[in-house]
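Hey, quick one: can you model this chain's 3D structure?
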Amino acid sequence: MEQGRQKKILLTAFRGTSAEVLVKGMRQYKSLIFPNDKVLDSELLAEALEQEPWDYVISFGQRPNIKDKVHIETTARKAASHICTSLDWERMKQVFEQCGLKVKISENAGTSFCNELYWNGLQFIQEKQLGTKMVFVHVPFEKNVTDMEEFRGRIENGLGKMIRMLI
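Sure thing. Here's the predicted structure for all 167 residues.
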């Protein structure tokens, strides 16, 4: 990545989820909202990756049974295979914690839409040898976020700090 060039960040989320509510409120970043169709979601992500040279894709999904915290997913899985993110997730965790977020590192992006999108996105990035770094972040259901504006602000602050650090 060139020094001094503004980083291109794409945020993604699934329609009708707390992740969509979160992402739509972060207007300084471009966003892509998926229609909740496993095949189409991955096709739309691949199309976005081909159209623009994104530095970072931060995908958000919702996870039940968590409250006021995020899970940074390090790994996408398919059967016995796995692909790990090339993003410095340890640094991301540190930065998010510095911004007041509770963070858990997870190696289980789920068994459905989230993992499917993550797997296909990471695989596409590898196959096309793109310089894009992708990570998946699970957030709570909206009812499990005490204050969505504050929560969003902490995530935005963390993303901004990460980008400035050029992770």
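One thing worth noting: The first helix runs from residue 18 to 24.
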